[in-house]
Amino acid sequence: MNFEDRVEQLFQAPCWVIDPLPFQVPAGSEGQFFAVEDHWLKPPQITELRQRFVRLLQKLNCYCDLEVAHPDEPVPVRNPAPEDLARKITDAHSEWVILIPSQDTLITLSRGDLYMSVYHPSEFLLRLLSPLAASEGLFFWQPPSSAP
C-alpha cells in the first residue's frame, strides 16, 4: 500500500492527542479557553509549543523510523535530519503528516491546532508517548469520542 493510501486508511482509526492540556475542555466550561487558545496560537507561544512537538518527535525518532510529508507533497522524507525536522515542524503555518510504518501509526500536526493527533497508536506507542509527552510538559490522552 502506498503512503497516501495508508495515511487515508489510518485517518479512520481511533485518535489520541498530544496536547498542552490534560483532557478536553468541556463545552460550556468556566474559564476562558478560547482566549487562552487565541493567545497560545500567536508568536512566541506557538513557536515554543511547536518546539516542544519537535523535541518529542526527535525523541520518538530514536525509537522508530518516521516518514514525514507535507500534504501538498505526498512523497515522504524518511528520518529527516533533526535540524530539518525542527525547521519544518516549528513553522506554525504548516501542516505535517508523520507515518510510523513499523507501528502502523499516523501523527498529524495541523495549522491552527494546539495539539498533534495520533491515529492508531500501537501498544508500544501507547506506553512510549505518555512519558515522551510529559518530558515536554505535554499530555497524551484519548478524546471521549474516539474511545473504542
Summarize the structure.
The protein has 148 residues and is α+β, with helices and mostly antiparallel strands. It has helices at 3-10, 33-40, 45-61, 82-89, 123-135, and strands spanning 15-19, 67-70, 73-78, 96-100, 105-109, 116-119, 139-141.
How is this structure best described in words?
This protein is an alpha+beta fold and 148 residues long. 36% of the residues lie in helices and 22% in strands. The chain is built from five helices and seven strands; from the N terminus they run H-E-H-H-E-E-H-E-E-E-H-E. The chain has helices at 3-10, 33-40, 45-61, 82-89, 123-135; strands at residues 15-19, 67-70, 73-78, 96-100, 105-109, 116-119, 139-141. A seven-stranded antiparallel beta sheet has the order 3-2-4-5-6-1-7, sandwiched between helices. A hairpin with a 2-residue loop joins strand 2 and strand 3. The chain is globular, with a radius of gyration of 15 Å.
Distance between the termini: 25 Å
The count of β-strands is: 7
Biggest sheet, spatial arrangement of strands: 3-2-4-5-6-1-7
- pLDDT < 50 runs, ≥5 residues: none
SSE order in H/E notation? Answer: HEHHEEHEEEHE
Radius of gyration: 15 Å
Main beta sheet, described?
7 strands, antiparallel
Helix content: 25-40%
Secondary-structure-derived class: alpha+beta
Query: What is the molecular shape?
Result: globular
The tally of helices reads: 5
Q: What is the mean pLDDT? A: 94
- Strand residue content: 15-25%
Q: What is the multimeric organization of the chains shown?
A: single chain
Which features characterize this protein?
148 residues, alpha+beta, 7-stranded antiparallel β-sheet, 36% helix, 22% strand
